[in-house]
Amino acid sequence: MSNSIFVKDGTAQGVAKQRLIETIAGPDKRVINDPYADSFVIGSGFMKLMGHKLNAWLSEKLAPGFHEHLIARTKFIDELIVKSAINGIQQYVILGAGYDSRAHRLELPSSLKIFEVDQPEVSDNKLAKLPKELPNSENVTYVNIDFSYQSLTEQLIGAGFDQEKSTIFTLEGVSQYITKEAVSSTIKELASLTRDTNSIFFMSYVDELLDKNPEACFGEGYPNPAKKASLIKGLSAKVGEPWISFYSYAEIEDLLSQNGYLIQENVTLEDLNSLYFSPVGRTLNENQIFKLEHFVVAKSKL
């Protein structure tokens, strides 16, 4: 449906797989730790036997920097959520939550109310796979929605969302799979929902240059960038989740500004490489940099 902001289960599994690969690394070598990722990955036991290096090598063969790109995105959002909570944000809404585990693996204050929004079948599947006893479960509310007849605003308010409380929204790894109309209407709805308070909005987007000039979306010397771009898009399409929407920075800036948001950060793996991977001795070379997806943080003008 054109106004749905959700994607299929396969995308969530793929991202969970990369989090598992990272978690398998030793404590002094990993960037993030997700003890729940293996719950969502078929063959997780075999992957653990293979170890981090072999799994990461296989990912490198598919597309250099792909694994690190997803881990950098995960870490960037992790830090954003923790920092926002420390600074007093009262609510956290995960749009298209999939197999996100931040509510349980991050050290978040009990005062932070968390809403995980997704389709009923995805939420049910997630709950069935997760351990029964989880940290911070009492502060998590699952918000099921069917866009064929339900409103995001109505479902959130019905689940206990408070329009007077400051909120951070995240739309991670979704915008390329859905229509631009769906992204635009969602941002407009969120801005209206929190018009009387402060809010932060995170989204990721795929650069429009991926089609126009793929070399610009990878580091200098990256092997066969156009071929790798086609491969990645082709793999998504093969599992029924094609990339259909690409953006320029100006387009994203205008979209957010029209809805009362000012961009604070716009980064890629290139910006986060030394910050996240150098401390664990895994700095990527320029010819391994995968920068086709941008991570944007915007704040309401209120």
Which labels suit this protein?
42% helix; 302 residues; alpha/beta; single chain; Rossmann fold
Protein described:
It contains eleven helices and seven strands. 43% of the residues are buried. The protein has helices spanning 9-24, 44-62, 66-86, 102-105, 120-129, 152-158, 180-193, 209-212, 225-238, 249-258, 269-277; strands at residues 91-95, 113-118, 140-144, 167-171, 199-206, 261-267, 293-300. It has a seven-stranded mixed beta sheet, sandwiched between helices. With 302 residues, the protein is an alpha/beta fold. It has a single domain (9-300), classed as Vaccinia Virus protein VP39 (Rossmann fold, 3-Layer(aba) Sandwich). Strand 4 (167-171), helix 7 and strand 5 form a beta-alpha-beta unit.
Write the layout of secondary structure elements.
Blueprint (H helix, E strand, L loop, with lengths): L8 H16 L19 H19 L3 H21 L4 E5 L6 H4 L7 E6 L1 H10 L10 E5 L7 H7 L8 E5 L8 H14 L5 E8 L2 H4 L12 H14 L10 H10 L2 E7 L1 H9 L15 E8 L2
Parallel strand pairs: 1-2, 1-4, 2-3, 4-5
Antiparallel strand pairs: 5-7, 6-7
Summarize the structure.
The chain is α/β, with parallel strands linked by helices and 302 residues long.
Helix content: 40-55%
Structural class: alpha/beta
CATH class: Alpha Beta
Overall mean pLDDT stands at: 94
> How does the major sheet shape up?
7 strands, mixed
Low-confidence stretches: none
What is the CATH-assigned architecture? 3-Layer(aba) Sandwich
